[in-house]
Specification:
alpha+beta; Ferric Hydroxamate Uptake Protein, Chain A, domain 1; 7-stranded mixed sheet; 3-stranded antiparallel sheet
Length: 204
């Protein structure tokens, strides 16, 4: 009777080692591929949009204008890629990404906005006190808090600093233009949207 042969210990150990190495390599390769391609396919932090809103700023009964080139974004001079003015028009704000606040937009113009103070690009402060109020109106309604506001399509925005009971406030509210709809293409009776020269984001 033939005795069963003893297993080759070296062969068994080699086979086990090969399987272990193979599984490890496969696991590492799979891990690398999954992570590499998931990184490539990640969604952006915020969705690209193209939102237009009408805007005006009044300080102590004087309208502040931003038509000067230093406040305008162009292809070669981008102040804030995701929210800006362009073509020397300071009446319509263009926002190109979700989550960008009015505070961030004003900061790109050199202005600092908090709940109680507005500081202009020369460092002059306008703060709420007994005789003055800093207020944000959107579509005729007072908005609070200021620092959380994100403009929406065709919002009419008035940022106001002055006497709380100013008889001119209603005039200022009515002075906010209604031109955002032209850029949005929702009021064709006012004309076609003009070309926008603020760089690639304007093509969105």
């Amino acid at each position: 009777m033939t005795k069963p042969s003893k297993p080759n210990i070296a062969f068994v150990l080699g086979l086990g080692l090969s399987l272990l190495i193979g599984n490890t390599l496969n696991g590492n390769i799979s891990y690398w591929l999954n992570n590499h391609f998931s990184t490539l396919n990640n969604e952006p932090d915020h969705e690209e949009v193209h939102v237009h809103s009408d805007f005006a700023l009044y300080i102590n009964d004087k309208q502040i204008h931003f038509t000067d080139d230093k406040y305008q974004s162009t292809t070669n001079h981008v102040l804030l890629e995701d929210m800006h003015l362009h073509d020397n028009d300071d009446e319509v704000i263009h926002r190109h990404a979700d989550g960008i606040t009015l505070v961030q937009f004003l900061a790109s113009l050199g202005y600092t906005l908090t709940e109680d103070c507005l500081t202009n690009d020369t460092g002059e402060e306008f703060c709420t006190d007994e005789d003055h109020v800093l207020a944000l109106y959107v579509n005729g309604e007072k908005i609070s808090p200021l620092n959380n506001y994100i403009n929406q399509e065709e919002d009419q925005i008035l940022l106001y600093y002055g006497a709380p009971d100013s008889p001119n406030l209603n005039t200022y509210l009515k002075s906010v233009t209604e031109n955002a709809c032209i850029f949005s293409g929702t009021c064709p009776e006012k004309g076609l949207p003009p070309p926008e020269s603020c760089g690639l984001t304007c093509e969105i």
